[in-house]
Amino acid sequence: MIDACSQESRPLLSIDDALGRIKTAVNPVNGTEKAALKNALGRVLAESVYSPVNIPHDRNAAMDGYAFASRDMADGQAFTLALAGTSWAGRPFQGQLQAGQCVRIFTGAVVPEQADSVIMQEHVQVQEQTVHFPADTRALQNVRKIGEDVKQGECLIAQPKKLTAVDLGLLASAGIDEVTVKRQLKIAHFSTGDELTSLGRPLESGKIYDSNRAMLGGLLSDPGYSVVDLGVIPDNKQLLEDRFIEASLSYDVIITTGGASVGEADYVKEILQSCGEVNFWKIAIKPGKPLAFGKIGQCHFFGLPGNPVAVVVTFQQIVAPALRQLSGAPSVKPLRFTATCTSALKKSPGRQEYQRGILSQDENGEFFVASAGQQGSHILSSMSQSGCYIVLPEGCKGVQAGDRVTVEPFSLLI
């Protein structure tokens, strides 16, 4: 579709087509390494893990109570059993449970071999060494079976999962202290532009502080990535080309911000064509149209726009899926659902637009979204105050209050 707000003579590449080109062009990095379990959070599993043990390893109690054999029950009548001892978590009952006996047992403690049931402690009455069971006592309850969670030899976690905190707990429960993971993705990022001032320096007239590197540093904060900030490069074509080529020899991915538009000092596309290859430049997204994707040697290159909101949007929608694919992690579609928009939204057809919104939910569970305010691609304050994107498709010509719209909640990294 032609962007109604630009002078484009040809249709812009759609977001889906851009993602399709990236998917075709990108292959996961080679190489694996061993990681101690304590260092494996967020890493991509390179080899499936199989359990060396049954989980649970023993039959054990699901609650605090009394373990007994169902053969001692009295056909729907109340009954009494003699207390033979205690089974503690980590210290099993050592004797043999005889007919007419039961043992005090705690959650997680081994159930004696002769017992098959556990009753909750609140349901019985204890008088010295005698335990009185009610008539409604149920047999074969509250006992966790051997291998009920995972059987020995079963797959605990299949590659190529990105390991979560729960995954680490599951692996630890099987006694596994080391896993094989994909090597870290090596990423370099830097900003371009004569107008940029690094933090800690006084701001001169005509200059702005470089917010993009701080944002990218946060967005790239992932255990599967090894990230280097290469600073700010001025608008010098030769210097930029030299830095691009130098970085391409050491990293899997280069991400730049600024210099990808059509101004006289915007050299990214020209340099990429000179020393590498351009897969695409400009896509039907707002904010963030002047996005370049290509390759220098074996290094993938993303040239993001300079405006900070456009950086965040294009990173999340275009770059992040590519990095997941490169790192070997499975693809993840963003969570999206519909909500009632309480604000009128302006939009021209031609590009898929990501407006910032404030999401809420009423007492009936219905979702509502309102505009977070000014939507300029330079206005970070509305991004900071909002909690979701309002995703407006290419053909949309605006939204009236009360219309249903698609929303995409922000990740926790924004």
UniProtKB/TrEMBL annotation:
<dbReference type="InterPro" id="IPR038987">
    <property type="entry name" value="MoeA-like"/>
</dbReference>
<keyword id="KW-0460">Magnesium</keyword>
<keyword id="KW-0500">Molybdenum</keyword>
<dbReference type="InterPro" id="IPR005110">
    <property type="entry name" value="MoeA_linker/N"/>
</dbReference>
<keyword id="KW-0501">Molybdenum cofactor biosynthesis</keyword>
<keyword id="KW-0808">Transferase</keyword>
<comment type="pathway">
    <text>Cofactor biosynthesis; molybdopterin biosynthesis.</text>
</comment>
<feature type="domain" description="MoaB/Mog">
    <location>
        <begin position="188"/>
        <end position="325"/>
    </location>
</feature>
<dbReference type="InterPro" id="IPR036135">
    <property type="entry name" value="MoeA_linker/N_sf"/>
</dbReference>
<keyword id="KW-0479">Metal-binding</keyword>
<dbReference type="Pfam" id="PF00994">
    <property type="entry name" value="MoCF_biosynth"/>
</dbReference>
<comment type="similarity">
    <text>Belongs to the MoeA family.</text>
</comment>
<dbReference type="Pfam" id="PF03454">
    <property type="entry name" value="MoeA_C"/>
</dbReference>
<dbReference type="InterPro" id="IPR036425">
    <property type="entry name" value="MoaB/Mog-like_dom_sf"/>
</dbReference>
<dbReference type="GO" id="GO:0046872">
    <property type="term" value="F:metal ion binding"/>
</dbReference>
<comment type="function">
    <text>Catalyzes the insertion of molybdate into adenylated molybdopterin with the concomitant release of AMP.</text>
</comment>
<dbReference type="InterPro" id="IPR008284">
    <property type="entry name" value="MoCF_biosynth_CS"/>
</dbReference>
<dbReference type="GO" id="GO:0061599">
    <property type="term" value="F:molybdopterin molybdotransferase activity"/>
</dbReference>
<dbReference type="InterPro" id="IPR005111">
    <property type="entry name" value="MoeA_C_domain_IV"/>
</dbReference>
<dbReference type="InterPro" id="IPR036688">
    <property type="entry name" value="MoeA_C_domain_IV_sf"/>
</dbReference>
<dbReference type="GO" id="GO:0006777">
    <property type="term" value="P:Mo-molybdopterin cofactor biosynthetic process"/>
</dbReference>
<dbReference type="InterPro" id="IPR001453">
    <property type="entry name" value="MoaB/Mog_dom"/>
</dbReference>
<dbReference type="GO" id="GO:0005829">
    <property type="term" value="C:cytosol"/>
</dbReference>
<protein>
    <recommendedName>
        <fullName>Molybdopterin molybdenumtransferase</fullName>
        <ecNumber>2.10.1.1</ecNumber>
    </recommendedName>
</protein>
<dbReference type="Pfam" id="PF03453">
    <property type="entry name" value="MoeA_N"/>
</dbReference>
